[in-house]
C-alpha cells in the first residue's frame, strides 16, 4: 500500500469533501468513509460529514 499524508480519517474526509465541492461546483455534500481494520479488535471505523460552500 502507498503512503498517505493523512493521519486521521476525519482529515481525509474533510479535504476530499472540499475538493469535490470545488471540482463539481456542488452546493453541499454528505460524505461517508470507512477504514476496515484500522483499530485492533474492531471490524470497521468510519466517519460521515456534511460540508457546504
Textual characterization of the structure:
The chain is α+β, with helices and mostly antiparallel strands and 53 residues long. The chain has one domain. The protein is 28% helix and 26% strand. The chain has one helix and two strands. The chain has a two-stranded antiparallel ribbon. The mean pLDDT is 88.
Secondary-structure topology with pairs:
Layout: H1 9-23, E1 28-34, E2 46-52
Describe this protein with a few key phrases.
single chain, 53 residues, alpha+beta, 26% strand
Work out the oligomeric state of the chains in this entry: single chain
Number of E strands? 2
Rough outline:
elongated
Total helical elements: 1
Helix content: 25-40%
Which sheet architecture does the biggest sheet show? 2 strands, antiparallel
Quick structural summary:
This protein has 53 residues and is an alpha+beta fold. The chain has one domain (9-52).
Amino acid at each position: 500500500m502507498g503512503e498517505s499524508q493523512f493521519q486521521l480519517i476525519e482529515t481525509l474526509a474533510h479535504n476530499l469533501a472540499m475538493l469535490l465541492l470545488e471540482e463539481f461546483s456542488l452546493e453541499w455534500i454528505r460524505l461517508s468513509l470507512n477504514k476496515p481494520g484500522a483499530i485492533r479488535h474492531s471490524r470497521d471505523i468510519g466517519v460521515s460529514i456534511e460540508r457546504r460552500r
